[in-house]
Amino acid sequence: MMRLSILGIALSSNSYYCASLSLIPPISTSSSSSSLSCSKKFTPSASGKFVTGKRNLVLRGQSVGFESELKPGDLMESVKEFPEFNRNLYPNIEPYSSGFLKVSDIHTIYWEESGNPNGHPVVFLHGGPGGGTAPSNRKFFDPDFFRIILFDQRGAGKSTPHACLVENTTWDLISDIEKLREHLEIPEWQVFGGSWGSTLALAYSQSHPDKVTGMVLRGIFLLRKKEIDWFYEGGAASIFPDAWEPFRDLIPENERESFVDAYGKRLNSDDQEVQYAAARAWTMWEMMTAHLFPNNDNIKRGEDDKFSLAFARIENHYFVNRGFFPSDGFLLDNIDKIRHIKTTIVQGRYDVCCPMMSAWDLHKAWPEADLKVIQDAGHSANEPGIAAELVAANEKLKHIKKGA
Question: How many C-beta neighbours within 10 Å does residue 30 have?
C-alpha cells in the first residue's frame, strides 16, 4: 500500500499550509490525466479530520506533533466540501441562440449561446489571437448548469471583416466583451480562457473585476518579451528543430534578427500569395508544437489558407505590439485587482508554446489561485489530462456557486 501524507506548517488552530499532498490508498488514474495540484489551505473540522469520498487524507504538522487520520465513514458531511468532481467532457450540443453584434464602425463579431438559457453564464475566450471558436469548446461545461457563451474575436472565425487588423487591440476586445455582456443582459459571468485566451481573461478581469464570478485559465501566456522570444526567436526550436526549419527558412538569413518582424512584413504584404505563404508557415509552426504528441488533425489546420491568414496575421499583429500593454509585466503587476476571484490555472508541464515558467510566475504572484500542473501534457486544451482538469475546474466553480 502506498501511503501519502500532507506535510503542513500550523498557521492557526484550524489552518495549515500544504507542502505536499498524498492519499491512502493510491489514486487510480489513466496515463493521460496525471496532475499535480498546488492547493493552498485545508481547514479541518472541530475534530481536525478531512474526508474526500472513500479516500483517506493524513494531515501531519510536524512542528506541533499533530496527526489526524481519516477512516471511511468519518464526518461524511464534509464530503460536500471536498466532492469528487466530474472530469469527463460533456456531449456535443448545439446553440439555442446566435447572432452578430456590431461593435464598431468596422467590426462585427459572431456570438452564440448553448446549454441552459437560465443557467450561470460563462464566456469562452478563444486562443490565438485569431484562432476563433469551435463546437468542441462547448464540451468543457455542464449544459444543465451553464449558459455557455462563445464568440469570435475581431477578425477571427465568423467575425467580420476577416483577418482585419484595424481597430484590433486588446483594449478593443475587452470593450467587445463588455458590449456582448450588456447585449445579452448578463450582470456577471464566469470567464474561461486558454493560451491567448488566458491573456485576455486576465486583462478583462483586471479591467472589470466586479463582472467576473470565477476564472478557469489554461496554458498561461502573459505576452512578455521572453515568452515571444522563446517561441519565435529560436528557443522552442531546440525541442522541435524539424518543425522549426521550415518556419525559419521562409525568411532570408539577413532578416533573421527578428522573425516576428520579418513575418509581420510578409503577412502585411500587398501580394496575397506572399501573405498566404507566410501565414501557412507561421500557423504550421504552432500547430506542430501544440501537442505533446503530434496531432495530425491539428496540423492540417495550417493548410487552410482562410484560417491561417487570420490566425497568423492577428497573432503577429498582437506580438509585434506586445499585446498593447503599457509594460512587459503589466498582467502580473495588476494581480491585486483580481486576487479575490476564485481561479484555477491548468498548465501542461511540457507546454512548448506557452512554457510553464509563465504559469509558475503567475502562481507565485497569485498563490490564492489553484495551480494544476498536468505532468503528461503539452499545450492543447484537447489533450486528455488538460481537458479533464478543465472540466473539473468548471465543476468546482459550479459546486461553489450552488452552495452560495
Answer: 11
